[in-house]
Amino acid sequence: MLDFMAGKRAYLAIHDPPYNLVAFKEREISDFISWCKKWVENSITVSNLDNSLYVWLGADQRDGFQPLPDFMLMMREMPLRPRSFITMRNQRGYGTQQNWMAVRQELLFYVSGNAKFNVEAEYTDIPKILRGYYKEIGGKLTENLQRGKSENIRAGNVWVDIQQIFYRMEENVSGCYAQKPLKAIERIIKASSQPGDFVVDFFAHSGTTLLAAEINERRCFTVDIDPVFCEISIRRLEHFRKTRRLGWQNGHPFEAEVPLPELLETAEPLPQGEIPELQRSLF
Hints:
With 283 residues, the protein is of the alpha/beta class. The protein has helices spanning 29-45, 68-75, 144-147, 182-192, 208-215, 227-243, 260-266, 277-282, and strands at 10-15, 21-22, 25-26, 47-56, 59-60, 66-67, 81-94, 102-112, 123-127, 135-137, 140-142, 152-154, 158-159, 198-201, 219-222. The strands form five sheets. It has a seven-stranded mixed β-sheet. A two-stranded antiparallel ribbon has the order 2-3.
């Protein structure tokens, strides 16, 4: 693993593994957790003694909330301390008329040693509008807006100010349906690293961590088991460096080789139920 990092060590790891999938195949929860333990140990191996680890991980309310609680129990065996359980709220969700709609994404935050944390990264664009919590200071009653260091609300561990990715957004990368918002990854990077630090991401997917590190003057080492996602990540970074655009919106990373209109016009319909392996990995 140190060869992968060219001998460098990361101060920050951000991982977004597939939920209960290993190499695109669903596994028993025990197998999935055993696999997670391996990449967490590898993440520790390539990290500085003072480091932060963030893991995006789902909780399937239709199946015992797995794999989140199982992963959290496994993490008790790791030489890391839990710091926070963050929730990012989606604008869209899934559910039925007989249940609460699922609109959350779970993010676990662990540290070791004297991990860095920049509290200023928590402040959002949301202005404070509520007055209250009066306190007497110097014989004068004051309220929270007067005492606060900022006129804006801190994100805390419930993030409601980040837009879920959809096809009309510039940063959209077609085919990457687990794509995390750039703003979310930038918040993590700004809070738990400094310019020039190394960041590691074992699940590149759409290359969001790589791009966020580029924008915020960090060095990122990233990898993905699927060569298609590796290529997408490379092209996204090159696309940004050339155009300063964050993604392709209604386009896609392979426009030069496969223009979308021609692809749609010439593609032959597949027999019902048959999905090529490449499409299975993308969609």
